[in-house]
């Protein structure tokens, strides 16, 4: 047999008298290689191909047989090679240790030559059978490793492509800036931060003039480089905290992130400064392919919250302003501008001073029992007196308060004034209730409970005389939290009314889940009784819903005897409006409390409607087979002029 193809048998045994037997016993079975110590065997295995079988004596001078077994069976080269341990120790404990060390078999010395040859043949046959299986396993393992590596590379490439796709979905391809979709997300994030801290926030926009003409005048690569240069100039004009986006082909927008110390005046000034710097950066000439290109821009500014409550509203404000100024000359653009921020900021400053110096005055509009005319109480409405003797109404200064983050301060001001006044009146007039409007900001502020307790303690006001009026929109913002809030307030003895009912989400489904004492029908429905016959069944349904849930019903904006009559017939409990009185100062309201009732200011009967209208009015009081539930008659057309003349601003 070719020596290179003979089985390889490694023997490690005592160098003095242990190796002679191997040459004799294994003659003709294969190529025998012998060593006199364990280290030489281990060194050879690092340089030579793996043998077919290894015999290891337990009497080596440097290693025990068990140690050599452990080394061989833990090596990748000889892990599958049969290892035979030869020993003079026949104990069961030694045999168990040998097998635990990885030995294939244990032979006891001295060895019988014929038995040894038979064992060697068996081990060589076993090795020959295992070698193809081992080679196949190695091949399969290598193939599997290649597949895993290929899959890992494919997954890495897929992740890279997905990340790129996500980036392109949110960013402009040319400049790498956030696009309009991404900007909306960034604006909403900044807006929520500003809203939570009652900070103003500004967004500025810059539109490139003659965009289409510029694009047509150069190749795509040059044009894209020009746009990228413009984006870089815009970024450099911003503060590090601000971020810029390309929201359309010709429009850039930048969100000016508010800082904790920024007031509305500071935000406005920063916006103007940044617009000026950005416009200067874009108006400057850009060197492109050896020629100078000057960009002309138009600008717009949107301030949160007065120009929009949400990101999409703010962007629409910018779009509208830029559309108006497209193609206009610089002088014309100065005439087409957003609301005067300077005057708004001045008014906000004066409002802050008026609050701080206690110069706002609470007025009270009476609420009347619909059936008896007795005075039920009043609603607190703040007036801001000017030096001229005129008053600024809530319709004018509340938007300024909202823009300047003054609503929580204003809420607390009105609540405090109402409690002080209740404490003054409650012992002399035991049966009245004063209403105070609370904003959504106050409603969702847990500190309001502590503030109410503090006010009741410091002013001496009794909770049963206070009624909090909440709008539907404030409740729907977080329905469950609002419901829990209302329940907690009512446990204090304070009553709760749903203000402006009918303007939001009026339905029995949500109304029955709210712990309310009363609803106030919005004045738009009350005025509609004069104009639209279909309003009657709507109001009837509102009253029916509230009555079914045990709530009182107050109608706001009652201006004519006809409205009062219809509302009373429909089951309204209380009436509030100019028919009885506008909001009046505390001393006049106190006189009304002392009188105990307020009579209508217009006492004459309504004129009888023409015959054709009378017939339709009479039919409105009868059940209609085609429209079930139609109610009381609509007012005659002749009375509309009188109604319009009776309307006044509170």
TrEMBL record:
Signal peptide: none annotated. Residues 599-617 have a biased composition (Basic and acidic residues). Residues 199-339 form the GGDEF domain. GO terms for biological process: phosphorelay signal transduction system. Residues 8-124 form the Response regulatory domain. InterPro entries: CheY-like_superfamily, Cyclic-di-GMP_PDE-like, EAL_dom, EAL_sf, GGDEF_dom, Nucleotide_cyclase, Rev_trsase/Diguanyl_cyclase, Sig_transdc_resp-reg_receiver. Residues 641-650 have a biased composition (Polar residues). Residues 599-650 are annotated as: Disordered. Residues 344-597 form the EAL domain. One of its GO terms (molecular function) is cyclic-guanylate-specific phosphodiesterase activity. This is Diguanylate cyclase (GGDEF)-like protein.
């Amino acid at each position: 047999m070719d020596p290179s193809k003979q089985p390889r048998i490694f023997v490690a045994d005592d160098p003095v008298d242990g190796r002679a037997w191997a040459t004799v016993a294994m003659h003709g079975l294969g190529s025998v290689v012998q060593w006199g110590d364990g280290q030489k065997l281990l060194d050879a295995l690092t340089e030579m191909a793996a043998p077919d079988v290894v015999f290891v004596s337990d009497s080596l001078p440097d290693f025990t047989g068990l140690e050599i077994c452990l080394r061989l069976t833990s090596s990748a080269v000889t892990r599958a090679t049969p290892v035979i341990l030869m020993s003079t120790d026949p104990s069961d404990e030694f045999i168990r240790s040998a097998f635990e060390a990885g030995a294939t078999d244990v032979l006891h010395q001295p060895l019988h030559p014929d038995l040894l040859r038979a064992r060697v043949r068996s081990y060589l046959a076993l090795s020959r059978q295992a070698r193809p299986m081992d080679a196949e396993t190695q091949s399969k393992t290598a193939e599997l490793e290649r597949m895993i590596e290929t899959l890992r590379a494919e997954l890495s490439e897929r992740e890279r492509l997905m990340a790129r796709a996500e980036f392109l979905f949110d960013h402009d391809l040319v400049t790498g800036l956030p696009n309009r979709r991404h900007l909306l997300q960034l604006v909403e994030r900044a807006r929520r931060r500003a809203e939570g801290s009652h900070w103003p926030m500004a967004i500025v926009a810059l539109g490139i003039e003659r965009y289409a003409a510029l694009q047509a005048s150069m190749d795509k690569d040059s044009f894209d480089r020009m746009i990228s240069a413009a984006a870089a100039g815009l970024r450099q004009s911003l503060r590090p905290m601000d971020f810029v986006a390309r929201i359309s082909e010709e429009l850039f927008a930048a969100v000016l992130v508010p800082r904790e110390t920024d007031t509305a005046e500071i935000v406005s000034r920063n916006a103007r400064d940044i617009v000026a710097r950005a416009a200067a950066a874009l108006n400057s000439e850009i060197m492109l392919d050896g020629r100078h290109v000057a960009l002309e821009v138009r600008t717009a500014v949107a301030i949160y919250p007065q120009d929009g409550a949400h990101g999409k509203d703010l962007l629409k404000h910018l779009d509208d302003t830029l559309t108006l100024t497209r193609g206009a000359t610089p002088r014309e653009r100065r005439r087409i501008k957003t609301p005067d921020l300077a005057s708004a900021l001045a008014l906000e400053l004066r409002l802050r001073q008026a609050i701080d110096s206690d110069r706002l005055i609470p007025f009270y509009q009476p609420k009347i029992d619909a059936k008896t005319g007795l005075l039920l109480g009043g609603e607190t409405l703040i007036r801001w007196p000017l030096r001229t003797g005129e008053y600024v109404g809530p319709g004018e200064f509340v938007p300024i308060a909202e823009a300047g983050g003054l609503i929580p301060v204003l809420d607390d001001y009105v609540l405090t004034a109402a409690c002080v006044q209740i404490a003054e009146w409650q012992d002399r007039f035991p049966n009245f209730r004063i209403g105070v409007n609370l904003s959504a900001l106050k409603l969702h502020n847990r500190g309001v409970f502590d503030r109410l307790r503090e006010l009741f303690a410091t002013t001496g006001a009794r909770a049963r005389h206070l009624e909090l009026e909440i709008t539907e929109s404030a409740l729907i913002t977080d329905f469950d939290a609002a419901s829990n809030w209302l329940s907690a307030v009512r446990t204090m003895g304070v009553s709760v009314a749903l203000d402006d009912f009918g303007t939001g989400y009026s339905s029995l489904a949500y109304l029955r889940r709210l712990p309310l004492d009363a609803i106030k029908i919005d004045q738009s429905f009350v005025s509609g009784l004069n104009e639209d016959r279909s309003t009657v069944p709507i109001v009837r349904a509102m009253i029916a819903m509230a009555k079914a849930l045990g709530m009182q019903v107050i109608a706001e904006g009652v201006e004519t005897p006809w409205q009062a009559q219809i509302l009373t017939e429909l089951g309204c409990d209380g009436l509030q409006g100019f028919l009885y009185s506008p909001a009046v100062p505390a001393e006049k309201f106190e006189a009304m409390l002392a009188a105990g009732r307020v009579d209508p200011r217009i006492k004459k009967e309504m004129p009888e409607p023409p015959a054709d209208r009378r017939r339709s009015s009479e039919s409105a009081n009868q059940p209609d087979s085609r429209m079930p539930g139609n109610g009381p008659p609509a007012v005659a057309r002749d009375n509309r002029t009188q109604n319009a003349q009776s309307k006044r601003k509170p």
